[in-house]
């Protein structure tokens, strides 16, 4: 069954339970646990619902504490830490079965004018010249374990087109860098909060696998344990997540069974709209 953009909208339409408390459901993307991008996006939605006025999010910093249960609802509790003249600060805790599985701090700011500069977008082929990642997965679906085959070969709400794909079943070592075009598969509402939430959802995609590239490893190996540990996202400028965005990722370090990764997200016209940083567990079982 396809995972549609309407399904993603449903994930981000949190149920109001009580003052500062919201509830959400999950969709399994194939890992058997709550996708980290889902927790990031839902936490951002919960926080935004407690912010008055036009103050878009400019940064969020989260820690993944426990694997999430895709069969159980998630309760998000928001702590209103500060409402200042320009900035609003929130703390969000995601709870399942009486335990925190994720926590996040988010900051919102009134729009201001100021100094501007940005990094340049790399010169890479445009998305029209590249195959969809879904097409690449379907080309090798007979090699995907049957238990998860339907997850990896179904339609998704976000379309990804990798510039430099790796064969997950024969991953030759490559430099720790990765470029992917992505966009929502359909038009999104014009409100900036929706676009930031969808971007937060997509920002957890592909980062940790970038740290695997120089080691010739991939997520399909049964002796490899991968998990996001923390995630930071900064929104620099307005963004439309239903237009093509280029995700430029690299991994400057791996040590202690952890891989550190960074990302820059550019609009099609070269505007830097967001930056990302993440550390994840990369454990190979003997």
Characterization of this structure:
Strands 1-2-4-5-6-3-9-12-11-10-8-7 form a twelve-stranded antiparallel β-sheet. The protein has six helices and twelve strands. The longest helix has 13 residues, at 36-48. With 286 residues, the chain is α+β, with helices and mostly antiparallel strands. 36% of the residues are buried. The model has no long low-confidence stretch (mean pLDDT 93). The two termini are 36 Å apart. 19% of the residues lie in helices and 37% in strands.
Short description:
It contains six helices and twelve strands.
In terms of topology, how is this protein built?
Layout: H1 5-12, E1 15-18, E2 21-24, H2 36-48, E3 57-64, E4 74-83, E5 87-96, E6 99-109, H3 133-139, H4 146-152, E7 158-162, E8 177-184, H5 192-203, H6 207-212, E9 224-235, E10 245-255, E11 258-267, E12 272-284
Antiparallel strand pairs: 1-2, 2-4, 3-6, 3-9, 4-5, 5-6, 7-8, 8-10, 9-12, 10-11, 11-12
Helix share bin: 10-25%
* Residue share in β-strands: 35-45%
Runs in which pLDDT lies below 50 for 5 or more consecutive residues are: none
Query: Given the structure, what is the number of helices?
Result: 6
Number of strands: 12
Q: State the distance separating the first and last CA atoms.
A: 36 Å
**Helix and strand sequence:** HEEHEEEEHHEEHHEEEE
In the sheet with the most strands, the strands line up as 1-2-4-5-6-3-9-12-11-10-8-7
Rg, rounded, reads 18 Å
The assigned structural class equals: alpha+beta
Q: Which sheet architecture does the biggest sheet show?
A: 12 strands, antiparallel
Tell me, briefly, the overall form. Answer: globular
Average residue-wise pLDDT: 93
